């Protein structure tokens, strides 16, 4: 699952209709190349593939006196369903690379508050399970004998523990913040970021 694919689909959805140059300019202004590994070429590839898969509709705009011909894209009903499916995975499923989560966080205001809390709650439960597994792995290592593992493997176990704890605690903190009323979501403001026809403000 590609963060670029999700971002491109989401930005077309938010604009109702958009072309590759517009989406590329906005994503680059968001520095998506840094946190989602999004490149200009991958944006155009994602647009073509999403259209091929039936998630976007291609609209050929003829040339005018002031602009050359171009291809615009509009989201289809299947594309809207795909957007929600990808958002669910982005916010629910922990992955080694953070790019999908980053995309999900940028776009979470396009969903209702309660939906975001439910998805993040599932992520937290998975991370809690990971914490238990890491703890058991540490216990096995400590009871397996002095010579069972090279001493420096302790550094790996320490990193694994710290990383898992940090991810779990960060998601728990985000959930608490959203439950306390932070941010604005799609069910609260029709102009929320990422909502079709709503705001797409570049910081």
From TrEMBL:
Query: Which PANTHER family does the entry mention?
Result: PADR-FAMILY TRANSCRIPTIONAL REGULATOR, TRANSCRIPTIONAL REGULATOR RV3488
Native organism is Pelagibacterium flavum
What name does UniProt use for this protein? PadR family transcriptional regulator
Which Pfam family is one of those matched by this entry?
PadR
Matching entries from Gene3D superfamilies are given as:
Winged helix-like DNA-binding domain superfamily/Winged helix DNA-binding domain (1.10.10.10)
Q: Which InterPro entries match?
A: Metal_resp_DNA-bind_regulator (IPR052509), Tscrpt_reg_PadR_N (IPR005149), WH-like_DNA-bd_sf (IPR036388), WH_DNA-bd_sf (IPR036390)
Lineage of the organism: Bacteria, Pseudomonadati, Pseudomonadota, Alphaproteobacteria, Hyphomicrobiales
> What's the superkingdom here?
Bacteria
Domain Transcription regulator PadR N-terminal residues, every copy:
8-84
């Amino acid at each position: 699952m590609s963060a670029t694919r999700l971002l491109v689909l989401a930005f077309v959805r938010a604009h109702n209709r958009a072309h590759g140059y517009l989406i590329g300019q906005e994503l680059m202004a968001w520095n998506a190349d840094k946190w989602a590994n999004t490149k200009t070429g991958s944006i155009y590839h994602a647009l073509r593939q999403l259209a091929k898969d039936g998630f976007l509709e291609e609209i050929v705009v003829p040339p005018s006196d002031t602009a050359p011909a171009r291809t615009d894209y509009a989201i289809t009903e299947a594309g809207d369903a795909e957007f929600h499916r990808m958002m669910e995975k982005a916010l629910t499923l922990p992955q080694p690379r953070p790019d999908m989560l980053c995309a999900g966080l940028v776009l979470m205001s396009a969903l209702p508050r309660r939906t975001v809390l439910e998805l993040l709650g599932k992520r937290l439960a998975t991370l809690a399970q990971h914490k238990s597994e890491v703890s058991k792995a540490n216990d096995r290592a400590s009871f397996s004998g002095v010579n069972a593992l090279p001493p420096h493997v302790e550094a790996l176990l320490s990193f694994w523990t710290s990383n898992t704890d940090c991810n779990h605690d960060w998601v728990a903190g985000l959930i608490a913040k959203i439950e306390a009323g932070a941010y604005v979501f799609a069910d609260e403001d029709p102009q929320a970021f990422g909502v079709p026809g709503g705001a797409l403000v570049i910081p």
